[in-house]
Target: Soluble lamin-associated protein of 75 kDa-like isoform X2
Amino acid sequence: MECHRCEQVVNMEDPELSTDTTQILPGIEGILCPTCGLCVGLYYVQEWIPVKQCLLDPAQEDGWTLAEGLWDKAVHWTLSQVVYRTMEPPNPDCKEALFDTPDPTDVIYLLWVGGKAVGFCTLKPRGALYEKTVESYAMMTIDTIFVRSSYRRRGHVRTLLEALSESHDDLGFSQPISDSMVKVLSRFLVDSKVHRRRFWEISGAGNEGCRKLVWYTIRHKYMARSSNHDLVRRSII
Model:
């Protein structure tokens, strides 16, 4: 196994190798690079699996799938805590933030393309506890979402939004909503007027006083732009 950050080669069969491990999930450990501390592989079913190989599953069909088993959650952990944090790190200037590991009650979806896990989405179910205020979430809420840069602009997030909208009357989006996600939502809501009063930007658990319509935020943003955007503004009013 090779660390992509410092290029240290980690050979688990080397008796002189001094490495640390950390438990990432019950029954699954991660091996840390002895040089920089980055996770380079997972130990599962008595086998060390390199990070890149953890994201491969030729049996998976293309599209979003519900993460149900322990290994699915390990794949999500690899994407959110290794790939997203170190290979494609968030840009704070674009309102991108680091993601925590999900709560036990969170719903997790994985995006598969060509037998490779390339994205994820975690959701807070309606009624789930928001620990900071001991309130319950007012609606199903997208808490985190990520698609690897080389797989963006292919309609994957739009497909997920359409599927979630079919099964939930209202859909929340945790603050901050990244600039790239705002663009996706803008295109989606311009095309789908029926969802304009169903998508909410929320803080906390999204109860009264802690939510506002995404559509109003988008419309205000475009209305504030220069007259060079008249055509766009007319299409969203």
About this structure: The domain at 55-234 is CATH 3.40.630 (Aminopeptidase). Helices lie at 51-54, 70-87, 156-167, 179-191, 214-223, 230-236.
